[in-house]
């Protein structure tokens, strides 16, 4: 038997072993209210996994050295850091997920549950819909690979030139308009627009007279965007790649002038831009999406015992390693925030019910109601909490929390209820079984309900239903409120809006988040604030626009000389000037003529730092407008008068979190 | 195309795009390197992008079991999301930069090439016990070094010398009227190494009827052939070689005097109030590559770090570039301390470099009256002073000039001026090319 036969058999054996976990994980996910894309699982070996990770999760990508680099790094990382239990799942319908054959069964199960949650997120989050509702990414990326390989194979085109071109474009890969739906930039933009106008005139059915008089050829021609004179675009263009695709030119070194793009250049630019749009939602929802997957993974694996008892320790260890890596961890932030939202929603639901109890108001709430008793009363029904083959008598087929059909099968011994206790419950039953407020790790959450919280809740309540006592009120508590809310949020939010809306002071305090800044007087990083608004600001900075400064096209005919003017929309944090200069050199290759970047910089001189240090304060930098220019030969930097950059300066947001009385 | 191809392209591209050495020295991030391992960032790894300035950006951290209070130092920034950008594997570390690693030897070699230097360090300190071939010999020693060949030869010689033809002597006893005394006297005459006792013994075993076989000794020698020892050994085999203690010789290695190229580098830095941030960084940019270079050039390099204001004290490398103090400046304090610390590194055993840096401000007359005499008194391959004045000259900053004037034309004192990162490489060249290499 050949090696590859052995390998194939090995993979088949593993696949056989995983059939049941895959089927049951999907079943459980659906019971828990998730609605994932169907997932196709593939078993691959260690090297294939490393390769797949290096290529961004897809088998066919265009030839480029950076995949080689990623592979090299990946290999070293798994080799030296003992990384394992990798999960790759692609946003596709059906989604494709990859399992590494050498992983233990517990790891495979963890990966599968994690993947089901991602597939739910891909399907239901609206930001993923911006690229396409029904993506076929693998095919798209593979087509791109074929196209670029064909350019490289073309004897007329230098392979290295294609590679360099890709490098240039990749420097701007995040300069797109990721909040707008993707649309392809069509061929000869201007000519097409003019043809459109002529068509439209035709369709208006105007008389020849009118056409001659008003809409003559000169008029049509005048609709041509005025590249020679005047400035364009009218509004700053966020999609820098699209702008370059329409108006960019290549620089011909021999002729020493700008020339039209070659076809391969234009096409390469466009397909890299399309890939940027495809990957953008992933980047925009990293905290949410990973937090979501981690939340449901731990629900299924840990709380629903998807891992067998002997696998659980292994799983717990894996989970701890992923979430407890030191420092700031976006996955952990995501999971913690989802848990916080669940708890806060459930707590609010309880508070609303209790505020409707006869005689209870937000003022006397804490005197009239003992939250410890409430907490005890909220414990799940023991019949739902502990389900076993010999306890099935405790369940009632007519109870909405019980899945009558499955219960019947379980009683007939068709369902292994000791292994899959959740099968005999409905969504509602599972909500009660996993009700967050009574979990040991969340004890105290309910009791932190403050009078001001109550006042806020009471303010928005209609005075409808009334309960005679606490018991009656609690009987009405909707235990699905938390999960229902979570699913709503995963539909409409991205990381920025998610953090903006749900980060609270309570959350920041409970999870010990803080901001830090570099302080010039001490030359090190110092904690600056634990205030939720400050933490939020810093997080916004990290997640808005992929954590990068926003740079737009301000003028494609700068100084009336066909130069490109990019503007950095300054929000109080300056750009890395050295990198910006390197980017400009590459943008020059895509514009063919001189390129400029307007930005605002902060200047501090030694003397000010010294004076501030002596006074135990932070120095206040001076903001200055700068124009960085690259003409194909030299980089120059010129100070601009404030008026020239005033429109770029943020007026309302200040990302600096340093206290005013610094170090005092 | 495919993975193998992409990997190859990566290696090609990576080699080409390693940061240029002098650019690295001027602007690169020196902090990632260790004394024994120079890490030079590879440019390609992150294609440039419009990014926030790291220092200006700040960030969010998460306390472990508690929240740090505003004002608490929090160490280096923690990895931030978005640093590594694939769609994310849990536990994946935030994007580190890739580095090209060089050991200091390679660094020194490349710097030599880039700057056209050719510092050829000389060995000084004698390292004892470096053993050459085992060519010397003594009478005692460990068994393993016993020269057995010699012992055997000597034993053989001895045996040959002691061996005699027993039958021949016995025949002599069969001469009419000869007794042991006569035979012994005859044998001695013939240089046959036989003892009197042996003859007496042989005589007593001789049957009486054989005692007059020969009428005279002449008749006997005529009829009996004497067998030589060599013939006997060939016939009877070599049964026993008489080893004697006095023949034992032990081989002993010849001591080769090998000299180690070792160096002690004294780094002196002015940490007084006038040394501001940028100046401090310039010193680091100049000294660190010098340290690497010398580490790479010598077999064994040791470093001494001295910080001074009006007084001097010795510090660890970690602290050296970070210290600030308030006081005035008296450069001679550092040289006094250097002289004291260098006593541990005697000049006949150590190459010495004494590098000092500061903004040239010194208390009045200190340079002329104290520093220069001290510099003359401390023997070293090279003394250097690096003046860091990012904002041009201050009026009382005359130390460098005074030193330069005094030592003009000397090949063991260098003075370099650094006003910005762009001067650093020149300064390093000035310093390293000053040392005379002819001797």
Provide a descriptive summary of the structure in words.
Chain B: It comes from Halomarina oriensis. Chain B: This is DUF444 family protein. Chain B: Residues 83-93 have a biased composition (Acidic residues). Chain B: Residues 58-68 have a biased composition (Gly residues). The complex is a heterodimer of chains A (664) and B (439). Chain A has 4 domains: 3-125 and 285-323, no CATH class; 139-219 and 229-283, no CATH class; 330-493, no CATH class; 518-648, no CATH class. Helix content of chain A is 51%, strand content 11%. The longest helix of chain A is centred in the N-terminal third of the chain and has 29 residues, at 3-31. With 439 residues, chain B is an alpha/beta fold. In chain B, 37% of the residues lie in helices and 15% in strands. Chain B contains 16 helices and 13 strands. Chain B has helices at 3-16, 21-27, 54-57, 104-115, 148-162, 166-173, 180-189, 196-204, 217-223, 229-236, 277-297, 317-320, 331-342, 366-377, 399-406, 424-434, and strands spanning 38-41, 59-62, 99-102, 125-127, 136-138, 250-252, 258-260, 262-270, 300-308, 312-315, 351-358, 382-388, 413-418. A 6-stranded mixed sheet of chain B has the order 10-9-8-11-12-13, sandwiched between helices. Mean pLDDT of chain B is 77; it is low at 78-96. Strand 6 of chain A pairs antiparallel with strand 2 of chain B.
